[in-house]
Amino acid sequence: MSAKKNINLEKSLADLEALVEELESGDLPLEKAMKKFEEGIKLTRGCQAALKEAEQRVEILLKSAGGDETMEDFEAGS
Hints:
The structure is a single chain. This protein is an all-alpha fold and 78 residues long. It has a single domain (9-63), classed as Helix Hairpins (Orthogonal Bundle). 67% of the residues lie in helices and 0% in strands. It has two helices and no strands. α1 runs antiparallel to α2. The longest helix is centred in the middle third of the chain and has 35 residues, at 30-64. It starts with 8 loop residues before the first helix and ends in a 14-residue tail after the last helix.
């Protein structure tokens, strides 16, 4: 595994949703809203890194299984 701290993707996404709801409420003072926004950016980056790592692992597994499968972009709703 990588030296990066492993994140719990589901928990991070739930935390991110909660942050978005707090920010959208408009009830936070500016300074607190900025701190929450910074937390959200960190969570987003962590989630993106976890998803990228998972994608790389899938590619490695497919190649090691001898498959010629190539990764295609996923389009929601299709």
